[in-house]
C-alpha cells in the first residue's frame, strides 16, 4: 500500500483497492500486501483490524480461486547450458580408466555424464578423497535443476558422518562460487544442526563464508532465511538478533518469494520472547508449541505433514481447544505465528470457495442464529437478565417522566402553568442527558457485555465450533454472512459478533479445518 494509513473505508466493498493491488494481481502480490499490513496490525494488539484484514484477504483469495487467477511470477532461472558434446563411439573394450578419460575430455557434458564420472571416480581415483561428491557438485553447478543429480547429491551427503560432512562443506567453500556454495550446502548445513553443537555449527558457517570469493547476494539471503528457520530454537538470542539486523539492512535485495518466510521468522521472534507465559496453560498449548518447533526444524514437506497431524487433533477435540484458549484470553503473538505458518504451508491450488450457494448459506446462517437464541433462552441467566431489563426500564420511566412531572406540578405548584411546563421540559432534558451520557448507560453496557460473555462461553462457543464442523465454513465467511443480515432475528447478534471476532479458538479451528479438507 502506498499510504501510511490504510483506507479502511474501502472495506468490505473494495478489498482490492484497500490492498492497493492492480486488476491483474496474483497470489504473491496479494500475500505480500496482506503480510505487510499484518506487521503493523498484529492480532494481539489490533484484533478488530486484524479480522477485517483477514476477511478482505480471504475475499480476494476466493476471487482468485473462482477466476483461476494469474499464476505467481516464475523465479529467475539460469541460462540453459550449451548443447552437450556427443560421446565418441564405444567399441565395448573400454576399461573404466579409458571411459573415465573420454568423459572427462568432453568440453560440453550432459547431466548423465557427470553421474557416470562420479560413479567411475570411485574405481579410477580411489586415493583421492571424495571425488564422487566432487563430480556431483560439478554436475549440479552445470545443471542446478536436474532431478537425478539432486537426488544423488541428497543421498550422498546423507550417507556421510558428521565429521566427513564438516570436511566436505569446508572444502566446498574453496571449490565453488558463492551461488553454487549456498545452493549445494543448504541441506548439509541444515543436517549438521542435529549432529554437532550449535557453537561449532556457527563457527563452521563463519569459516566457510570467510573463504568465499565473489558476490554473495542474493544467494546468501535465501540461504540464511532457510537455515535460521531450521536453527531458530537452537540458536542464542544474540545470533538471531544479528540475523534480523542483517536482513533489515539487506531488505531491498530480498526476493519476493521469501517475504512470507521472513514474516514468519519475525512473528517467531516475538513469540519466542513470551513463550514461557504461553506454555503456562493446558497440555494442548504445549503440543501446539512442539508442532511449531518441529515445523521449523523440518523441510516444508515434513512440516506440512506435522501441521496436518496437529490440525486433525484440533478439529477432532473441540472441547480441548476451547479449554486451552478461553474466550477473551490474551495469548500474545502465538496466533500470528500459527496463522503465518499456515499461509506458508497453503498449497496454491487450495479451494477456499464457500461450500454452499449464497441462498443456502443465508438460510443456514439464519437457522444458526435461531439456534443460538434458543440456547440462550434456555439458560436461567437469561431470566435474570430479562428481569433486570424490566427493572431498568421501570427506573427509566420513573426518572424520565414521573419524577420531572412530580417536581414541576407538585413541588413547584405555586409557579404559573407556563413556568411549570418549562421546568418539566428542563427536567426531561436533564434526565435524558443523564441516561445517555451518564454512568447508567455505561453500567448497562458493562452488564450486557458480562451477560453475553457468560452465554458465549457456556452455549455459543461450542455451538459455533459445531456449526463450523458441519458447514466447513471459515470464521471469516460466517462473520461476513452475519453482517449481511439486516433484520434482528437474533437481537444479541452484535454482541455475539464482537466476541467471535476476538476469540482465537474458532479462528484456530478454521485454519486447522482448512488444512485437512
From TrEMBL:
Transmembrane regions listed in the UniProt entry: 390-412, 418-435
CDD domains assigned to the protein according to its UniProt record, in alphabetical order: DnaJ
Top-level lineage group: Bacteria
Keyword vocabulary terms for this entry: Membrane, Transmembrane, Transmembrane helix
Residues of the J domain: 14-65
InterPro entries: DnaJ_domain, J_dom_sf
Feature: compositional bias, Pro residues: 69-89
PROSITE patterns: DNAJ_2
Region (Disordered): 63-94
SMART domains in alphabetical order: DnaJ
Designated name of the protein: J domain-containing protein
Phylogenetic lineage: Bacteria, Pseudomonadati, Acidobacteriota, Holophagae, Acanthopleuribacterales
Amino acid at each position: 500500500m502506498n499510504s501510511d494509513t490504510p483506507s479502511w473505508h474501502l472495506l468490505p466493498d473494495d478489498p482490492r483497492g484497500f490492498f492497493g493491488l492492480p486488476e491483474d494481481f496474483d497470489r504473491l502480490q496479494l500475500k505480500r500486501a496482506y503480510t505487510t499490513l499484518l506487521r503493523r496490525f498484529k492480532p494481539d494488539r489490533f484484533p478488530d483490524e486484524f479480522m477485517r484484514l483477514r476477511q478482505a484477504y480471504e475475499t480476494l483469495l476466493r476471487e482468485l480461486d473462482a477466476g483461476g487467477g494469474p499464476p505467481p511470477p516464475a523465479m529467475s532461472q539460469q541460462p540453459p547450458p550449451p548443447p552437450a558434446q556427443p560421446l565418441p563411439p564405444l567399441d565395448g573394450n573400454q576399461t573404466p580408466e579409458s571411459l573415465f578419460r573420454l568423459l572427462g575430455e568432453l568440453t560440453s557434458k550432459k547431466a548423465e555424464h557427470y553421474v557416470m564420472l562420479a560413479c567411475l571416480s570411485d574405481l579410477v581415483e580411489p586415493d583421492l578423497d571424495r571425488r564422487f561428491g566432487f563430480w556431483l557438485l560439478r554436475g549440479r553447478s552445470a545443471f542446478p535443476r536436474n532431478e537425478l543429480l539432486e537426488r544423488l547429491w541428497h543421498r550422498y551427503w546423507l550417507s556421510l558422518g558428521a565429521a566427513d560432512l564438516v570436511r566436505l562443506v569446508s572444502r566446498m567453500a574453496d571449490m565453488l562460487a558463492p551461488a553454487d556454495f549456498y545452493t549445494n550446502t543448504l541441506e548439509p548445513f541444515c543436517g549438521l544442526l542435529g549432529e554437532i553443537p550449535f557453537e561449532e555449527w556457527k563457527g563452521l558457517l563463519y569459516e566457510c563464508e570467510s573463504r568465499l570469493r565473489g558476490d554473495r547476494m542474493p544467494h546468501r539471503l535465501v540461504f540464511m532465511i532457510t537455515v535460521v528457520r531450521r536453527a531458530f530454537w537452537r540458536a542464542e538470542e544474540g545470533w538471531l538478533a544479528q540475523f534480523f539486523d542483517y536482513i533489515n539492512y539487506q531488505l531491498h535485495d530480498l526476493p519476493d518469494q521469501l517475504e512470507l518466510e521472513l514474516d514468519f521468522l519475525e512473528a517467531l521472534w516475538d513469540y519466542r520472547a513470551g513463550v514461557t507465559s504461553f506454555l503456562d496453560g493446558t497440555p494442548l498449548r504445549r503440543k501446539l508449541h512442539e508442532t511449531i518447533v518441529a515445523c521449523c526444524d523440518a523441510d516444508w514437506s515434513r512440516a506440512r505433514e506435522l501441521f496436518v497431524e496437529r490440525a486433525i487433533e484440533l478439529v477432532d477435540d473441540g472441547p480441548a481447544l476451547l479449554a486451552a484458549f478461553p474466550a477473551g484470553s490474551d495469548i500474545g503473538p502465538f496466533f500470528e505465528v500459527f496463522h503465518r505458518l499456515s499461509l506458508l504451508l497453503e498449497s496454491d491450488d487450495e479451494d477456499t470457495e464457500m461450500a454452499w450457494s449464497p441462498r443456502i448459506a443465508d438460510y443456514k446462517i439464519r437457522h444458526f442464529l435461531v439456534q443460538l437464541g434458543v440456547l440462550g433462552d434456555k439458560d436461567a441467566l437469561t431470566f435474570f437478565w430479562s428481569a433486570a431489563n424490566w427493572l431498568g426500564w421501570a427506573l427509566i420511566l420513573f426518572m424520565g417522566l414521573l419524577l420531572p412531572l412530580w417536581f414541576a406540578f407538585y413541588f413547584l405548584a405555586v409557579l404559573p402553568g407556563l413556568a411549570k411546563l418549562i421546568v418539566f421540559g428542563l427536567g426531561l432534558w436533564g434526565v435524558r442527558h443523564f441516561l445517555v451520557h451518564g454512568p447508567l448507560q455505561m453500567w448497562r453496557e458493562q452488564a450486557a457485555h458480562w451477560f453475553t460473555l457468560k452465554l458465549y462461553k457456556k452455549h455459543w462457543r461450542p455451538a459455533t465450533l459445531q456449526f463450523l464442523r458441519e458447514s466447513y465454513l471459515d470464521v471469516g465467511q460466517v462473520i461476513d454472512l452475519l453482517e449481511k443480515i439486516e433484520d434482528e432475528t437474533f437481537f444479541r447478534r452484535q454482541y455475539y459478533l464482537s466476541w467471535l471476532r476476538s476469540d482465537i479458538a474458532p479462528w484456530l479451528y478454521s485454519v486447522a479445518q482448512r488444512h485437512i479438507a
